[in-house]
Amino acid sequence: ELELRSAYEALEEIKRGLDETVAERTAALRGSLARNEMLLREVHHRVKNNLQLVSSLVGAASRSEPDARSRMKFVEVQAQIRAIAATYDVLLRMDSVDVADYCKIVSELCRHIQAAHPGLVSISTEGAGNAPVSADAAVALSLAINELITNSMKHAAPGREINIAVSCKVAGERLRIGIADDGTGFGPGFDLERAKGFGLQMARMFIEHAGGQIHVVERAMGAAVEISVPTVGTA
Hints:
By secondary structure, the chain is of the alpha+beta class. The chain is about 55% helix and about 20% strand. It is built from five helices and seven strands. The strands form two sheets. It has a five-stranded mixed β-sheet with strand order 2-4-5-7-6, covered by helices on one side. A hairpin with a 7-residue loop joins strand 6 (about 215) and strand 7. The chain is elongated and about 95 Å long. The N and C termini lie far apart (about 55 Å). The relative contact order is 0.10.
């Protein structure tokens, strides 16, 4: 009995030591995680500020460019920079900076795009559900949406303001983003996979980078596409 009691006390002492070690290691890991989170937020903040600076420089360059086609290229590049900056801006306001609820980013992104093109486009947004994607995927998706909306402004309704509806929802384990306009549509026999337009090719590239796919949605009027991307934690 004395030997068992002595062994039990020894085990209790070992357990207390292990508990203290685990508590110390856990506190250290939490401190390290908090520091890393703070550093990542600081990096995102600096990236956003630098993007805004670059956007201003590109805007100044476009205003001093005498050639109209060159000015348009500058404007397109500036729109891409703004799309990335808008995404980082929303990321900084979220609890996590490495995973983003993309439905919260969509409305902010579309607001920036509409503000940059007054009188050319009117964008309505609708979002529902929590749509977690990685920060890298969020940036890629924002660039894709910017390209698709810009493409609609260029080709779908020349000479008038175009109306575009953007929806964001979660279906199962996938994020689905719908973009529809009231323009002339894609036309009969249109094949998105064979499309030669630079904007559509860029959009497809960004979507593939995010691990997603894009397809045309048939409708009676205008053009519509749907982007499908796996949410974080799904294959």
